[in-house]
Amino acid sequence: MEIGQMPRAKAVAGSVAWFIAVGGTFGCLLPYLSGDWHFHPAPLAVRVAGVILIGAGLIPLLLSFADFIQAGGTPVPVASPPRLVLSGCYRYVRNPIYVGFVVVLGGEILLFWSAGLLRYTIVAWAVGIAAVRWYEEPVLTRKFGAPYLEYRRAVRGWIPRVRPWAGPC
Predict the structure, then answer these.
(1) Is residue 86 within 8 Å of 168, Cβ to Cβ?
(2) pLDDT tens, 76-134?
(3) Beta strand residue intervals within 11-53, DSSP E
């Protein structure tokens, strides 16, 4: 185990708790409380597309959480891994958790056919962009320096690459 790396069981527990607390709050509870998390009339094909998007969005979320656990930490900022996570989905896009989350919300928009959820998604994405720009990127730059800056130049933040970045893992 690397210095600063947390035990796997603790990383799994912390990651699962974070996924449920944050994902559950922002992906389910707040949309539900907004009154927009109920079905409006929509074609079946639109609802099916929504379910497919929700499933597709969960893939980078779950894989990214697994990458954090493998690196000896969690996505929780105060319990992050001791090394920069550059594997899996991070080889395609710098913010796969945020991208996956927005795709899930896009699926909810289609599943519930809700203009209110569209507005919520736009606000959630704007908050995510602000969090990355004003908190995460400065913290990662201070913590990892040149390797993070190289990664940032090579991998876009929000639009995945077609081919994975071939930099260090």
Answers:
(1) yes
(2) 888 899 999 999 999 999 999 999 999 999 999 999 999 999 999 999 999 999 999 99
(3) none
Domain parsing of the chain, residue ranges:
8-154
pLDDT score, position 7: 84
- From 168, 156, 107, select the one nearest 132 (Cα to Cα): 156
Q: What is the C-alpha to C-alpha distance for residues 111 and 95, in angstroms, rounded to an integer?
A: 24
Amino acid in position 163: R
DSSP secondary-structure letter at 5? Answer: P
- Residue among 32, 14, 45, 169 at smallest CA distance from 114: 32
Structure tokens at 57: 């969005």
69-83 burial: b if 16+ Cβ within 10 Å, else e: bebbbbbeeebbbeb
Q: With bands split at pLDDT 50, 70 and 90, how would you rate the model's confidence at 19?
A: very high
